[in-house]
């Protein structure tokens, strides 16, 4: 259990209020429905055990502690077994709107909301199953890249308006409010795999699907066909 300082608790309360309002305006319906069930208390930072107890009842998922950088195989593969590697530290109070490094606000407000929803949880398991099936570092990186543009930065088109579903967007009031400033493209896997991204700032390119079902179907078709020899077919150099 982490003994958070009062400054950290205040950062959580401040960001909670900002994100709650920003999500109401800019998040997709599926994410807003999920957050009604999610463990995102307004008055305190939840402990991992509190989050896990809540999520297990809803979707069978649990938070497990990410100690430092977690390799793709372990990070993605653990999702097949219902575990998400999450952190416990809180972003600096001077930059509450965005953090390039995931913190507990990102993990709870993003992935915690996702994993309260069976529909989102199924997508995590699809990615986890694919990661467990392969050993190639290039193919694992392909899965990671697609994960980035969907579960971290995905957008849905709702009546012609981009609405966020990605965890990084849901957990950044600074970025979720500027969705329309990004270049928004259709959810084409090959385009995702050739689109560069920088984890240290706001994303200039986002991919928008028509529904969460389309996300599931698009990812499922791609992931189910992957094996250790898939990299060259997508212009990636094969390595083991």
Summarize the structure.
The protein is α/β, with parallel strands linked by helices.
CATH C-level name: Mainly Alpha
CATH architecture: Orthogonal Bundle
Poorly predicted runs: none
How do the strands of the widest beta sheet line up side by side? 4-3-6-5
**Percentage of helical residues?**
40-55%
What does it look like?
This protein has 240 residues and is an alpha/beta fold. The chain has one domain (6-224): Orthogonal Bundle (Phenylalanine Hydroxylase), CATH 1.10.800. Helices cover 48% and strands 10% of the residues. The chain contains eleven helices and six strands. It has a four-stranded mixed sheet. Helix 6 (118-133) runs parallel beside helix 11. The mean pLDDT is 94.
Per-chain topology:
Elements: H1 6-26, H2 29-35, H3 48-58, E1 62-65, H4 72-77, E2 83-86, H5 104-114, H6 118-133, H7 137-152, E3 155-158, E4 161-164, H8 167-170, H9 173-176, E5 183-185, H10 189-193, E6 205-209, H11 212-224
Parallel strand pairs: 1-2, 3-6, 5-6
Antiparallel strand pairs: 3-4
Helix pairs in contact: 6-7, 6-11
